[in-house]
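Lab meeting minutes (informal)
Scribe: AK
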Amino acid sequence: VTPAVRPARPIAKLRTKPVAEGPSVDELLAQADDARAHSDLAAAAAALRQVVEQHRDDPRAYGSAFQLGKIERSRGRHAAAARAFTGAAERSPAGALTEDARAEAAISWFDGGLYTEAREAGEDYLSRHPEGAHVARVQRMLQRLP
């Protein structure tokens, strides 16, 4: 007696859960603007951080990283500011804000008391932008390092 052959079952399609969509870049930027208008820098930073982290491929993430650095510095969060400025420079190495971002990162590291990082960032700025707009400022910062 030959066993009965069962018809092959179709392979089940993989079901994927839809990715939960968060706020759009436009919504987050509007939230950041509104928060700044109401002097809520923590909320502005949170909205900009979401743009930078969750919408990496959006061209506005570059400017958002720079703005995040400015806000974090105004909040006295110098290391967070330096990381944001560094992220802006890395995101667009030839971007319009990149020279400024590199200088601001160096100064922010210094202001946060992270002198090794400040020296590295300052020397990096000077090597990349020997005729840059922030040369004198970065050189003064380097001279003040312990």
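Next up, CB showed the second protein from the same session:
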Amino acid sequence: MRKKEFAARVWSKLMAFEKQQGLLKQGDSVLAAVSGGPDSVCLAHYLTQQSRRKSFKLNLLHIHHGLRGKAADADAAFVRKLGDGLGVNVRVIEVAVRERAQRRGKGLEDAARELRYGALEDCARKLGANKVATGHQLDDQAETVLLQLVRGSRLETLAGMAPSRALGDALLIRPLLPLSRADVRAYLEVHSLKHRVDRTNADPRFTRNWLRRHVLPLLEKGNPKIRERLSALAAEVRLLTARRP
């Protein structure tokens, strides 16, 4: 399949999922989390196109975690430049992840997640945004479900990440959930979009990275569609648990 045809298929996935879930509407005010990585760049570009089609307001938020020195500074500069190119306003918020982790006895990943969602909620409230968008995609969903299976969690946790959920007074939406990591890369390539690489995402000391790099490739040998299957399992669990009395 040629690149443009592949990109058209990706766009069709996004549009069908958005319509099915009712994620974006005319008159919305959307705040998108943009790290500068491939998924978030794809999200920013897609939402920019849709904001023009559906006449909704869009702002981008970059959260500087203060963990990677000059690389993190370069990420923030990249997102500002991306926003300029897209014609979208960018805000940058700095959070102190290491201090939070030490103060509360948490791991860096957990502390970063707490601060990230807190910053998104706070910024959405200040901007009057009714939607907050993140760039989670299908592979992220599969990794989340697998992580819960490894931890031996309850059935409810296998529901993974919902397409939308409440975040303070806003609705958190995940428009890229139907896309695989390969879909995202194709989208970026066709639209000639650059992105940043966070090398901590390859650090096997973090359980999710270890699952991504070592466990999922082994499972794919038994089922090449394991990522799609894990994502489908999450949807099935959400439906099952929603029906419980």
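CB comment: The mean pLDDT is 93.
No objections, moving on.
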